[in-house]
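Possible regression after last week's pipeline update?

I re-ran a chain I had predicted before the update to compare outputs. Posting the input and the new output here so someone can diff against the archived version. Not blocking, just want to make sure nothing changed silently.
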Amino acid sequence: MAGFDSQFRVPGMKAISASANEVSVFVNKKVVKGYEDLTFDGTDLVVTGNVFVEGAISASGHTSDGTTATNLGSGEGSFAQKVNNELQFRSVTAGANITLNSGTNSIEIVGTGGGAGNPAGNNTTIQYNDSSVFNGSDLFTFNNTTELVTAPATTISGTCTVSGNLLPLNDSEYNLGSPTHRFSNVYTGDLHLRNEKGNWTIHEEPDMLVVTNNLTGKKYKMHLIPLPEEL
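New output (post-update):
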């Protein structure tokens, strides 16, 4: 109310009680009064307390109230984090085997190595470390439907222990050892021998070896002749 004092009165007007720059409002529909937390200096309207709005707010511009936003890096895109009253932005940067693709409203993270969204190799290929990068080869695969592992010629330098049966893929097709790569000793229980002509089992008794013809059920004792001790 520029040009009037804080207690200006004219006939027909309510009493006005306000200090400089205070916006006068009706209180209980009777008295016009000003408040220190609602002021207007001719340029800025300042509300010190909370503002309750029942409808929408439209504005042609925005000025910060002192809250700061700090950009803390560089990269393809960023995400927001609120720390107390401060809105901070940190950049998203690509690491090893990661590519960032920035879209209009999103950031796509794409893995370029194994173990990520696009692993190396084809379907069923087993991953391996290739100079700190995951790679895959069609020579080394695992089919989870058939439970079949395929691998190139493989050398195992230590002991190979299995908890189940060790079986060839096809019947009577593969060898155990070769003429130039023989096993020194074979440790086994009963020895089963079978081909397209015969089917025999050799098993041990305390003082003899017994051979069983599995086709006829007949059993035979192997004749063992003692040899001189020096042999």
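Follow-up from reviewer: compared with the archived run. Residues 188-225 form one domain. Marking as no regression found.
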